[in-house]
TrEMBL record, chain A:
Domain of life per record: Eukaryota
Molecular function as annotated in GO: acid phosphatase activity
Membrane-crossing residue ranges in chain numbering: 367-391
UniProt-listed PANTHER family: ACID PHOSPHATASE-RELATED (PTHR11567), PROSTATIC ACID PHOSPHATASE (PTHR11567:SF211)
Family the UniProt entry places it in: Belongs to the histidine acid phosphatase family.
UniProt-listed Enzyme Commission number(s): 3.1.3.2
Protein name: acid phosphatase
TrEMBL record, chain B:
Catalysed reactions, semicolon-separated: a phosphate monoester + H2O = an alcohol + phosphate
Signal peptide (residue range): 1-18
Entry superkingdom: Eukaryota
Gene that this polypeptide is encoded by: LOC115875033
Lineage of origin: Eukaryota, Metazoa, Ecdysozoa, Arthropoda, Hexapoda
Keyword Signal (UniProt): yes
The family this protein is said to belong to: Belongs to the histidine acid phosphatase family.
Keyword line: Signal
InterPro entries membership: Acid_Pase_AS (IPR033379), His_Pase_clade-2 (IPR000560), His_PPase_superfam (IPR029033), Histidine_acid_phosphatase (IPR050645)
Single GO MF annotation: acid phosphatase activity
Record's protein name: Testicular acid phosphatase homolog
Organism (species): Sitophilus oryzae (Rice weevil)
């Protein structure tokens, strides 16, 4: 009797084994900030219009991230212990004040100290380390480490028909913005900077100058959101921008997937990355999941790794403003097998070493290869021609006079 | 009270005379109390639960927060009421305990006031900590690879001085080896063991019978001797503490030139950082800095420097007069007096010529 009951229970347990969350990686944009740089004719370019210095996180931004931290606490209540341990979470930020501060505010919401974490009864906050790497050395999170090949490919992309056509179509708009703003607005990126400044000024209830009102937001909106897609527009561009990140993500998921729950040594179960709108957009676009828009403050991409009856799968969410929405990674729907996830992302995944060598290789693409081949061919043929001429001359000269033994052509 | 007022008026008078107007400060502090980073086979407390390995303890957190508050009191005139990111810079080492200590000092130094309060029920505000990767951090960690230094460091280990230490402490090594159940045969191992015992004692863990206060005192001195051999020669001083001083001098010069550089610079560091700097300044021979020990270098409008040392997180600033540079010690005088320990091109000076 007992045996059957046990069997029944265990069969039941196996069949209905709840999928277990094994790892979470979140990448978010910082909170509300002041404009990074006002434009020359900006009526609000005086610092006194703003609560903080240029590009700094504001109190609103701090609150937004504090709330996002509380959201994580709620969402992962059964997953992430309430007491802080460096064995559970690893936090990394780009080396910029507003992202470092956003991460701190976020953690204040995620880990209000309880029990033994309380070190001062009068201040219910606890310090949590945030790791960072100087931007020009950071190819994983800031995506700012220089990559020659990416720069080259991007330039090529913007020369193609589609983008040339856009430049043509919007030529007047660019000229209009340049004339009125006092800044040279001649590409998508600079247009987006300006769009962003307008956005923030409207958010702070400042009336835009009349010339700006004529084009903001409607006429600029599409271009501004397109600017978020260009850095990862093709598979090659995506690989060189987000490849090292996805490599890290995949290795981490593999590692966590293989880790037993009772293992003594294990990677933290939660990775938090504090970053920028461009990074959020780049990650989504690389996964074929970017709907053109400007990622708002605290926009978050959530990667969740589950394990159920020995099967590991990934769910990716995008939390735009309200709740997290499931996104499909290159059409790998909802519960994407880890193996398949890895396979799908393979073309855009590469190690830092591979990234380094690809970024610095001189043979950027087939076009360069052709050029090299043609020049090689030209070189060989001209050499051949020269030798041919030389030999013929020698031969013809041979007929004219008796050659001395140590003379050329011998 | 009268004396206090007198002192205050003298201070104010000096301000009026324009002699003693503070321009820029550099504050280097050791992190707060941490958990042990090692144990030994016979350790009766080896299964004690600490918060992480080499992590800040709650007491360590409070120490750092208090240090921040103390600095606010010391510099009440100089440190502005509000945190201004462009005027304040925190640099930390890569290590968690320093990153956390930095955040805590920042919280004590800049509790949010008025418009800074973003959450009325939490009087704290985020302040960013910057740092360089460990392998290139010459400023705080000071363990960047440097061929010539690394060779000199190896040479020091076979020097007469270290041989003398080993001879002198051979009985102690034997004693410690016997009781700990682990081989202890150099001053570094003694230092490491001392750190563990010291922290355990601070946390009211009863130390085994073979440990007593005079033994701990002797071990502490040996620990300090161990920290000093990292900057045994003049060249070694130059490549470690000297690099820090060069960086500080350059920030000071820029400040005097009117460049926008932070006037409040804080460095969340390790014991070795302080030893390196203090030894480069020729202020100490050996030193084993306590938790929260702090070195302050002040720059005044008249281009003179003053140096202070706080022995721990709750210490009072003791002025450290440089034998080589005083009355007043101007940047110019300082650069000349410490020329031998100020690198001009660190990378080049690491190579053999």
């Amino acid at each position: 009797m007992n045996f059957w009951l046990l069997l029944l229970i265990s069969v039941f347990a196996v069949c209905s084994s709840e999928p277990a969350l094994k790892a979470v990686v979140v990448v978010f944009r910082h909170g509300d900030r002041t404009p990074v740089r006002p434009y020359p004719t900006d009526p609000y370019k005086n610092r006194s219009y703003w609560p903080e210095d240029w590009g700094m996180l504001t109190n609103t931004g701090k609150r937004q991230h504090y709330e996002l931290g509380q959201y994580f606490r709620q969402r992962y209540a059964d997953f992430l212990p309430e007491e802080y341990s460096e064995r559970d979470i690893f936090v990394r930020s780009t080396d910029v004040d507003r992202t470092l501060m956003s991460a701190e505010a976020d953690l204040a919401g995620l880990y209000p100290p309880i029990k033994t974490d309380i070190w001062d009864n009068n201040l219910l906050w606890q310090p949590i380390p945030i790791h960072t790497t100087p931007e020009n050395m950071d190819a994983v999170l800031a995506e700012k480490k220089p990559c020659k090949k990416h720069g080259y490919l991007l330039k090529q992309l913007l020369k193609n028909d589609y983008f040339r056509n856009i430049s043509h179509t919007y030529h007047d708009l660019y000229a209009y913005l340049t004339r009125n703003s006092g800044d040279t607005i001649s590409d998508l990126t600079h247009l987006e900077y300006l769009y962003n400044t307008f956005y923030i000024e409207t958010l702070y209830n400042y009336t835009l100058p009349e010339w700006a009102q004529k084009v903001y937001p409607t006429k600029m909106k599409y271009l501004a959101s397109l600017s978020f897609a260009i850095n990862t527009y093709t598979s090659d561009l995506a690989r060189l921008k987000t490849g090292p990140f996805f490599n890290e993500l995949i290795n981490y998921f593999k590692n966590r997937s293989a880790t037993e729950d009772n293992a003594i040594y294990y990677a933290p179960k939660f990775l938090m990355f504090s970053s920028h709108d461009t990074i959020v957009a780049n990650l989504l676009n690389s996964m074929g999941a970017f709907e053109y828009h400007n990622p708002p403050y605290t926009a978050t991409v959530l990667f969740e790794l589950y394990k159920s009856s020995g099967r590991s799968y990934v769910k990716v969410f995008y939390k735009n403003t309200t709740d997290a929405r499931l996104v499909s990674v290159h059409n790998c729907e909802s519960e994407c097998d880890l193996e398949k996830f890895i396979e799908i992302l393979k073309p855009i995944t590469l190690t830092l070493e591979e990234w380094e060598s690809e970024c610095n290789s001189l043979l950027f693409d087939t076009w360069h290869l052709y050029l090299l081949l043609i020049s090689l061919l030209f070189f060989v043929s001209s050499c051949g021609f020269y030798i041919f001429v030389l030999v013929r001359n020698c031969k013809s000269e041979n007929n004219m006079y008796t050659q001395l033994p140590d003379e050329e052509c011998a | 009270m009268i004396l206090h007022k007198l002192l205050l008026s003298i201070y104010l008078l000096s301000l009026v005379q324009g002699k003693e107007i503070l321009k820029q400060i550099h504050i280097v502090f050791r992190h707060g109390e941490r958990s042990p980073t090692s144990t030994y086979p016979n350790d009766p407390h080896k299964n004690y639960t600490w918060p992480g390995v080499g992590y800040l303890t709650n007491r360590g957190k409070l120490q750092m927060y208090t240090l921040g508050q103390n600095l606010r009191t010391i510099y009440s005139e100089f440190v502005p009421k509000y945190y201004w990111p462009l005027d304040v810079n925190f640099t930390s080492s890569y290590s968690d305990r320093c990153l956390m200590s930095g955040q805590l000092v920042a919280s004590g130094l800049f509790p949010p006031k008025d418009v800074e309060i973003w959450n009325p029920s939490l009087l704290w505000q985020p302040i960013p900590m910057h740092y360089l990767p460990r392998n290139i951090d010459n400023l705080i960690v000071m363990r960047t690879s440097c061929a010539k230094y690394d060779q000199e460091f190896i040479d020091v280990h076979s020097s007469a001085k270290v041989e003398q230490y080993n001879k002198e402490y051979s009985n102690l090594y034997k004693y410690l080896t016997e009781h700990t159940g682990m081989e202890i045969n150099n001053i570094e191992a003694v230092e490491s063991l001392y750190n563990t015992l010291d922290i355990q004692q601070l946390n009211n863990l009863t130390l085994p019978d073979w440990v007593n206060s005079s033994l701990l005192a002797e071990m502490k001195i040996i620990g300090a001797q161990n920290l000093a051999i990292y900057s045994e020669t003049e060249y070694m001083k130059k490549m470690k503490g000297g690099f820090f001083l060069t960086t500080v001098l350059s920030l000071m010069k820029r400040s005097l030139n009117g460049s926008l550089v932070p006037s409040i610079n804080l460095y969340s560091a390790h014991d070795l950082t302080l030893v390196h700097i203090m030894r480069a300044l020729n202020l100490v021979d050996i030193l084993k800095p306590d938790f929260g020990a702090t070195l302050i270098i002040e720059l005044y409008e008249n281009a003179s420097l003053k140096i202070f040392y706080l022995t721990d997180w709750n210490g009072t600033p003791q002025e450290q007069v440089l034998k080589e540079c005083n009355n007043p010690c101007t940047i110019e005088k300082f650069s000349e007096a410490f020329k031998a320990v100020l690198p001009t091109n660190w990378t080049e000076e690491c190579q053999y010529t």
